[in-house]
């Protein structure tokens, strides 16, 4: 699989995952208003119900003249998107145009992938080595309420019962697999695997502060890889901040970086 085809796969997968996240969100009681638009070769991910997950993809020097119209589309909805810029798209002209519209790079994300078929040299085979004192389990949908309780504990989530009743059918399923790590019988970390056909997205990893450094996230990472492999998922992907423990953990078990995007946001 070439880097170009991996990037195309990544774009399609993240669109599917963004659409799903808009449906499952517990941060807003509004129904999903996620949709795509296309302007001059640009892809607009628009979520009118959630202001923080609007994005503009595909910006490069050849279509930079379409950026004002795309930004105007978001602005007409009261939104300001994040602009994800591929490495090859970062030219003097592109940067100057984005700066003129108030956009500047704020951080970057490394996108990683692993081929679970063990047949593609671009992505090596997974290597698993669970910490001996960490137990990981998949939360069945029959116990989905316990996953909400853990989210409240881990991230301080607030969610009223009515909203949870409307959204919980999307959690702890075959499409959105929820994993919990235990140390000495105590639930202390969680993570998820989103499945779209033969592809998977690893995300939402969080650990209680008092259990950091105990190997929980490494165990959750490896458990998700093994689960993906057991289901015949061909490729799993994730994104991490560069030069972090998360990136090192992913690469240690066989993920390979396929792309590093700079993230541009409006700076007033």
TrEMBL record:
Ranges in a coiled coil: none
Keywords, A to Z? Transferase
Please give the InterPro entries that the UniProt record associates with this protein.
Answer: Acyl_CoA_acyltransferase, GNAT_dom
Domain of life of the source: Bacteria
The record's annotation in CDD domains points to: NAT_SF
Question: Chaperone among the record's keywords?
Answer: no
Q: Where is the N-acetyltransferase domain?
A: 134-268
GO function terms (MF aspect): acyltransferase activity, transferring groups other than amino-acyl groups
Q: Does the keyword Secreted apply?
A: no
**What name does UniProt use for this protein?**
Acetyltransferase (GNAT) family protein
Q: Which organism is it from?
A: Pseudovibrio axinellae
